[in-house]
Amino acid sequence: MKIMKKVSQFTEGxxxxxxxxxxxxxxxxxxxxxITVMLQGIAGAFGVRIPVSCLMSQIVPVSLFRIGLATPAxxxxxxxxxxxxxxxxxxxxxxxxx
Length: 98
Hints:
This protein is mainly α and 98 residues long. It has five helices and no strands.
């Protein structure tokens, strides 16, 4: 945590000290997230949310309820992708433990 010590020394006595002290660890953890989380987010947004909202906006009469269904559909895909990735990791770890 050398970075955190340097940041705390730099921000000591400044107004932004609590903000940087809170935000930097979160940022560093986000940078360490595997690329699979980013890919599932992109797949949910561009693969489901945008196409479903465009499709629902073409159904007459146009309803914000139908267009809003794109978000839960995207969430459902993201949950399935995360669960699938978790199962894949567990199987891989179990196979490596043998």
